[in-house]
Amino acid sequence: MLGCVGRLVEQKGLELMLPVLKELLDSPAQIVILGTGEVRYEQALQALAAERPGSMAVVLAYNESLAHRIEAAADIFLMPSLFEPCGLNQLYSLRYGTLPVVRKVGGLADTVTDASDEALQSGSATGFVFRQPLLQGRRVRAAQAQHQGWLELGLDAGPQAGRLRHVVARVVGLHGDAHLELLAELLVPPVEYRQAAALHVVHHV
Predict the structure, then answer these.
(1) Separation between Cα atoms, residue 83 and residue 106, nearest integer Å
(2) pLDDT, tens digit, for every residue of 60-96?
(3) d(CA 159, CA 173)
(4) What whole-number distance in Å separates Cα of residue 66 and Cα of residue 70?
(5) How does pLDDT run across 17-38, given as a tens digit for each residue?
(6) Around Cβ 25, how many Cβ atoms within 10 Å?
(7) 3-class secondary-structure state, position 10
């Protein structure tokens, strides 16, 4: 599941995101967007959601509680801002263990470490940082296709990486790789909060 929370205005990268959303909707991905803003973006997002009601939900509102549930439940948080002096949502995502996809600008570039080969090898990667959105979309899908790498990246993004790695090692030792995909969905501190958040989003959005 991909989540996006924020003002629906040009500064937040809606012109970059809309074409990519159409491509993503042709995959098994689900997309949840929360926010309000310019009418043209609200209408474009609502039209996409109407075409694919089983894959996309758009909530035109300001709802801080729902925002945090989306950030906690999502696998990926989209934040392709054209400029962003600081930014908070990518920090919330990192706290929940959700991988942020951000544009290389301002505070986003300062707070998210791109999943480059070097960063993956050193264990410092926390998300995806891009300049060209279509190319980055392919990188994200390629990383997701490699469950082990995706899982490790998600663990590095969270604040309790050591404890979670111990859980992963134990589960894999007992059950092999069969449970990796499920773990990738659940392992974010606290685990119970993410499960509750995911159920809330599924039943209320």
Answers:
(1) 6
(2) 999 999 999 999 999 889 999 999 888 899 999 888 8
(3) 23
(4) 6
(5) 898 888 888 888 899 999 999 9
(6) 17
(7) helix
**Structural tokens at position 202:** 């599924």
Identify the CA nearest to 39 among candidates 69, 7, 62.
7
User: DSSP states of 185-200 as a string?
Assistant: HH-SSSHHHHHHHHHH
DSSP-assigned letter for residue 4: E
Contact predicate 148/165, CB 8 Å: no
Continuous H helices in 26-112: 39-51, 64-73, 89-96, 106-111
DSSP per residue, 129-182: EESSHHHHHHHHHHHHHSHHHHHHHHHHHSTTHHHHHHHHHHHHHHHGGGGHHH
